[in-house]
Amino acid sequence: MMKRPHQPPSGGGVSGGYRRPIIQYLLLAASAFSLLVFAFQSSFFAGNQTILAVNKQDIQILSKFQSNVKQCVANRGLGLTAKIIDHCKLVLKFPEGTDSRWFNKQFKSFEPLEYSYDVCETLLLWEQYRNMSTILTREYLDARPDGWLIYAAKRIAQLGADKCYNRTLCDEILKVILPPDPPFRPRQFKTCAVVGNSGDLLKTEFGEEIDRHDAVIRDNEAPVNKTYAKHVGMKRDFRLVVRGGARNMIPILKGSDNEVLIIKSLTHRDFNEMIKRVPNPVYLFQGIVLRRGAKGTGMKTVELALSMCDIVDIYGFTVDPGYTQWTRYFSEPKDGHNPLQGRAYYQLLECLGVIRIHSPMRAERKLDWSDVPNRDMINRAHRAAVRLKNVQTGQDSDVGPFRSCKVWANVGPNDRGPISGSPDMSGVRKNSNYSKWEAMPFEKLRKEAQDHYIQMEGTTLYKMDGNKLDDLVCVRHSLNSGS
Ligand SMILES: *[C@@H]1O[C@H](CO)[C@@H](O)[C@H](O)[C@H]1NC(C)=O
Ligand SMILES: *[C@@H]1O[C@H](CO)[C@@H](O)[C@H](O)[C@H]1NC(C)=O
Ligand SMILES: *[C@@H]1O[C@H](CO)[C@@H](O)[C@H](O)[C@H]1NC(C)=O
Ligand SMILES: *[C@@H]1O[C@H](CO)[C@@H](O)[C@H](O)[C@H]1NC(C)=O
């Protein structure tokens, strides 16, 4: 080396004399530092390894579960196949040549033939629904921060203000349909049938089978009468409606005064008018933003069903191959929305033990669900998914049902609000059977629902917004109040 770079222009010897110890210092410092870094890295690495060791078992459980799901899709998916990406990720594929000609106006595209899912997240989401209330209540509005001022206003169309500055006014509009606490509870029914409106209902005769369920959930203007009885049954317990359907509701409800109406979106002038003219109990759905999976009322009826029923059988959904039109059993075909996306997602849900699918192409099968993961496997996979998520998000190892409670409220035995209805009920409305649900004595509840309530220490869970997993509103009732 002839010339050192960055050498001071003069007094080389002197500066050299100074420099040597500095360089030695620097070298020492550098090696000390790298030792430190090394120590830090290896301890970090060791820590990581402990985490990995703990989670290895969970990853095994989930990988095993993924193979079960894959097998289930192969057996039941009518051509769909599952490709496992890792212990959580899974891709569902339609066979080559599947007709995807249904143009999606919203996304300006034809439907893809492949759909990726995070099975862990899906499991967390849908298992959560089993413990959830999906009905808007007074205690929820009271508990949620700005529940009345901001949230209540969002559920009223044409309020004339962006917020409920006049709480009395909002209370007056809502109280007709606002129960004090959940009128329906987790595990209230053993079996529920969710009946969609697909035209393929006419290809089968599921009527009696549907009616044998403890509760039947329908949507919008689906007619239930002798004409369709053998295809769709006659039992009517719940009906989820979008507000656009309000005007048609009166002739459709005729003769079923006890069928509970649940409004999916907003209450509205038309609706309040309609409500006054029918004796049926009416409520608002809680949790209306949907971010994943198939869109529409169908998915919401499944959520509603899962929040009250152990077993959810679905009929009349568009889940068979070969559709070219969106059909309804009671009217002409109309424009459809995402049939392939829906079919894939419902198939995934069936293989996660959330729903059981019934359709013309599955009607010939005997009722054998042995290839669907059973409750034990699902519970194990669910706990593993919770633990993995806790590690990933740096939370502690809480796997209990309250781990997602962001907001807590307590309701004492004497804090309970009035049951739904308003003082100026019309003649028809005076016979409304709100009390059947809202004043049901605890002892009359199904044993499983009572046990659940006790295990949950009298706590009701509500979603804060749409499908978000975390951020629950949790309201604890004193257990001896029995409500
Ligand atoms: C709030 O609304 C109620 C019910 O409509 C009404 O009687 C009252 O005058 C309103 N209060 C204000 C300050 O506007
Ligand atoms: C059943 O409902 C459909 C559609 O509303 C109607 O056309 C039909 O006449 C009804 N049948 C009976 C027996 O009421
Ligand atoms: C649901 O409730 C049961 C008690 O019935 C509880 O054991 C379970 O952990 C809860 N699951 C979730 C996901 O909250
Ligand atoms: C209200 O519900 C009760 C209990 O199910 C039932 O016996 C009664 O007939 C219903 N009343 C009306 C007006 O429908």
Automatic annotation (TrEMBL):
- Give the record's keywords alphabetically: Glycoprotein, Glycosyltransferase, Golgi apparatus, Membrane, Signal-anchor, Transferase, Transmembrane, Transmembrane helix
Query: Main subcellular localization, coarse class?
Result: Golgi
User: In which compartments does the protein localize?
Assistant: Golgi apparatus membrane
Membrane topology per the record? Answer: Single-pass type II membrane protein
Tagged with keyword Plastid: no
Q: Which family does it belong to?
A: Belongs to the glycosyltransferase 29 family.
Name by which UniProt lists this protein: Transferase
Organism the protein comes from: Lithospermum erythrorhizon (Purple gromwell)
